[in-house]
Amino acid sequence: MIHLDEYADRLEPLLKGWRRQFHREPETGWTEYRTTWRIYEELSRLSFTLYIGDDCLVNEARMGVPAEAELRKAEEKARAAGVPETLLKQISRGRTGVVATMDTGKPGPETAMRFDIDALPVNEASVPGHLPEDQGFRSAEEGRMHACAHDGHTAIGLAVAHFLHDHQHQLRGTFVLLFQPAEEGSRGAKAMVEKGWLDHADYFLGGHIGIEDLPVGTISAGSDQFLATSKFDLAFTGTAAHAGKRPEEGKNALLAAAACVQNLHSIAPHSGGATRLNVGTLKAGSGRNIIPEQAYLTGETRGETEELNRYVLEETKRISEAAAAMYGVTADFSVCGTGTVAACDQELKQLITKAASRTDQVTQVLDSVSLGASEDVTHMINRVQKKGGLASYMIFGTPLPAGHHHPSFDFDEAVLKIGFLAFASAVTEISLTEEE
After folding, report:
1. What pTM, to 2 d.p., does this model score?
2. Whether residue 294 has pLDDT greater than 80
3. Binding site annotation covers 208?
4. Which domains does the chain possess?
């Protein structure tokens, strides 16, 4: 017998400890060197074959990799934190993430599970009542924060790994754990997909803490309303000039960018369904008396279908070219991340619902929760389904004192145990179903 609740209760202190450690050391996409190291160190004690660096992902399939200077700075920080030189060399230049595989030695299905590990460029709140501040595990990195629960997802992944290790003799088949970098910006999943990790999966499980404000103990067996998305960078290049002496000689990149932003947010809605656009950053100029030569902005498009997202993206390109022409500057447009639409398999959702009866701590199972956002896990879901497997993306309920990506984002740490139980019960159910 596998006593899930007893096992989860014993794991709970570890779950909280892992989560808090990752929360203190947030690293954004493709710079998760310390995070990769800590995951690798924990998994190396267990019965897994581990893959990192070039063995983990396809370099050419990575999107939105930071500039060399940012990567070097993150590597130096990792070196100072104690990351061994041999490991750092393998994951250098942004080749972060870990894949762990286990073969139980007994015939059975291959089950893949994904856990995202990156943080966001958000400066965490330092106000009373914010748990990480009150309990002393607020982000130690200014301008970096786990504001989307990936610290919790990573902790859940490590707990699942311990469960598989401790119960491998009672389970069947093969397990693949994907600790994925660079989910934010939809930049990392394709690099693991293209390595082939999902090509033989009979089952795929993913999950997310929060999304909706729900009681702890509530899970959703699946998700819907994944929005297709494109993340873009846009650089305008003009000509600098003295703003007083020779203003006519300048070509103002800042004005081109400003005109572009205003018009991007005026793109007409589409009769075919919901669309989104957001410009998240705009940086331009070098001094008050200088015609700005450079302007940079970053943004994203979304749509409830690929066609709708493509409509917004093409309009974005057209407007950026028009704004550049208006001010006599050039525009360099590039896509640096993509997510697509996906649907969870009803058969697997039913299995997850049945599996939840193995634990008394999961008190309610919803069929589906609408994501209403984008997730590059869709690349994994679609690859598994294309190869004939079943896939689903679960939601783990928790009260949310502030929304995702907010400086005061946090969650009830009791949800960590519920997230673990959702994965562990599903894995157990899959194994026993196949055995029957």
Report:
1. 0.95
2. yes
3. yes
4. 4-226+341-435 (3.40.630.10), 228-338 (3.30.70.360)
